[in-house]
Amino acid sequence: MRYQVRTKKGQYWYYKLQALEAIFPTGQGGNKLSKYKHLGKAGSPAHIDAVLQVASRNQIDELQRAINSLSDSWLEVVFATVKEDKKAESK
C-alpha cells in the first residue's frame, strides 16, 4: 500500500504492508503485533524486499491453485473411469 505524507517542504510517498490481522512485530519489542509494516520510500531495501516477498507469495498462490485444479480434474477422471467399469461389469 502506498500513502502520501505532506510537509512544508513538499509531499512524499511511502509504502507499507497491510494485513487483515495483526501479524507484523512492532518495533517496540515485546510480543505486540501490528496490522502494518512501514517500508519507507520506493527503492529502499525494506521496500524492495517486501515487493520480492509479495511476488513470491503470489507465485506460490498461483501454483497452489494450479495444483488444486489438476487434483480436481484427476479425481473427475478417476471417478468417471470407475463408473464406466461398474457399468461394463453389470452388463
Please provide a written account of the structure:
By secondary structure, the chain is an alpha+beta fold. The protein folds into two domains: 1-42, no CATH class; 45-91. The chain is built from one helix and five strands; from the N terminus they run βββββα. The strands form two sheets. The protein has a three-stranded antiparallel β-sheet with strand order 1-2-5. Strands 3-4 form a two-stranded antiparallel ribbon. The chain is elongated and about 85 Å long. The protein starts with a strand and ends with a helix. The mean pLDDT is 89.
What's the helix count? 1
Based on Cα principal axes, name the global outline: elongated
Given as residue ranges, the uncertain stretches (5+ residues, pLDDT < 50) are none
Quantity of strands, as a count: 5
The main pleated sheet reads as: 3 strands, antiparallel
The averaged pLDDT comes out at: 89
- Report the radius of gyration as a whole number of Å: 24 Å
Q: How would you classify the helix and strand content by structural class?
A: alpha+beta
- Note the gap between the termini: 63 Å
Which percent bin holds the helix content? Answer: 40-55%
Order of helices and strands: EEEEEH
Strand portion, in percent? 25-35%
Q: Give the tally of structural domains.
A: 2
